[in-house]
Specification:
Chain A is mainly α. Chain A has helices at about 10-20, 35-40, 45-60, 75-105, 105-120, and strands at about 60-65, 70. In chain B, the strands form three sheets. Chain B has a six-stranded mixed sheet, sandwiched between helices. Chain B is an alpha/beta fold and about 280 residues long. Classes of the chains: A mainly alpha (about 120), B alpha/beta (about 280).
Chain lengths: ~120, ~280
């Protein structure tokens, strides 16, 4: 067993690029690193990086300028947030609900915790 | 890139080390050649490089028969053996004398790779360097040849911890769509994100030859808190993080290859693996 996380690497790379866009490391309408540079920097096979880029392109988050490379779409931030909200609703919440059931945690308990969190 | 048909080879007359291998090795991939000790990996690599001659069968690499050792073949091949001797020669002179055989050699790239490996004194005599440092010089040289076919036999053996990451970065910078790399290794942890095609050998035969996408389309690598026994599971083991397993990917779920799990699954289910991944070349 080598990896603890068995999610496909190309999705992890896509996630990383989304983070970089959210944190403005890659700017909207700016160019992102080439497949080869990204692969070398992250020590990942270029074919895997290509799959990540294709996934992001298919979601409309980045686009290809022929011969120039990949650029961040003007509406990338909204797209990323929409995709992540969807992931939160479909993957993270059901997990939380399952744990709540197992541990007898009510939704009121959660609200209480949330209010404490917000006050910090 | 490489076509192998019914290849047989033995060092002694009555014992085949390569036992009727037929295989297609595709261009543009980093192939990981895996197998237990003494199963014929190095022998296969030497045959492809033209350093050994087949007893029967044929090999075509980049359109050439390796055993004929034509200039067109050798100038586009770089072979890094697991063990090697070096001359009493400075790095600088080594490059001057050896680069002439490789038309696409880039001296600039060579010194950049050396710098990445933190080797700065190009006047150092090769024979005075440690094994790991020698190996780094030879690797930097090999990648700077920009040969279309690079065969690396246990490249990370003898490299220290930082050099392994440097090696991965350099190899990725050096390769293009035209480069095919075959890496034989036991150090799968060093290279698992680099490799995108896997060849598994056992007793002179190929058990599995498939690229990562083919593997993940047919096998699913997962983890669960409690082991659940099902028919389609090929292999499972308990780890701190939970029970990790390999099963047939009947629901077309996406997952990430874990080479160690794959290797164990292949050895526990040789027949099943062969039916899931039929050798397209046939017998």
């Amino acid at each position: 067993m080598i990896t603890q996380d068995l999610n496909p690497i190309y999705l992890k790379l896509a996630d990383k690029i989304c983070d970089n866009i959210l944190w403005s490391k890659y700017e909207v309408e700016g160019r992102i690193p080439s497949v080869r540079d990204f692969a070398a920097d992250h020590e990942v096979n270029p074919n895997t990086v290509m799959r990540a880029f294709e996934w992001l392109q298919q979601k409309g988050i980045i686009y290809n300028k022929r011969g120039l490379g990949y650029y961040v779409s003007h509406n990338a931030l909204d797209l990323i947030k929409t995709i992540r909200k969807e992931g939160f609703r479909k993957e993270i919440l059901p997990n939380v609900f399952k744990q709540m059931e197992q541990l007898n945690i009510s939704i009121e308990d959660i609200i209480k915790e949330y209010e404490i969190y917000k006050r910090k | 890139m490489i076509e192998i048909n019914n290849l047989k080879f033995g060092y002694k007359r009555n014992k085949l080390v390569i036992d009727d291998i037929s295989l297609h090795i595709r261009k543009g991939y980093i192939h990981g050649l895996l197998g237990k000790n003494g199963t014929g990996k190095t022998t296969l690599l030497k045959l492809v490089a033209g350093l050994l001659f087949p007893d029967s069968g044929e090999i075509k690499a980049m359109g050439f028969e390796p055993m004929k050792r034509k200039v067109g073949f050798l100038s586009d091949l770089f072979f890094l053996p697991e063990e090697f001797d070096v001359y009493k020669m400075s790095i600088e002179n080594y490059v001057k004398t050896h680069s002439v055989f490789y038309p696409n050699f880039s001296e600039e790239d060579f010194y950049n790779y050396l710098e990445e490996f933190e080797i700065t004194n190009k006047k150092s005599k090769l024979n005075s360097l440690s094994f790991g440092t020698k190996k780094k010089v030879i690797i930097a040289f090999g990648l700077a040849t920009h040969a279309k076919l690079m065969i690396l036999d246990e490249p990370t053996n003898g490299l220290d911890i930082p050099s392994k990451a440097q090696f991965r970065k350099i190899i990725l910078r050096a390769m293009t769509d035209e480069t095919t790399i075959i890496i034989s290794t036991h150090q799968v942890r060093d290279l698992h994100n680099l490799i995108d095609s896997i060849l598994i050998m056992d007793e002179g035969k190929i058990l599995l030859a498939a690229n990562n996408q083919e593997i993940t389309s047919k096998l699913y690598f997962g983890i669960e808190a409690q082991p659940i026994q099902t028919q389609d599971k090929l292999y499972s083991e308990d780890t701190i993080g939970g029970n990790v397993f390999v099963k047939e990917n009947k629901n077309f779920e996406e997952s990430n290859i874990d080479i160690e799990l794959l290797f164990n699954a292949v050895f526990q289910n040789k027949a099943k693996i062969q039916s899931l991944f039929p050798n397209k070349k046939g017998e």
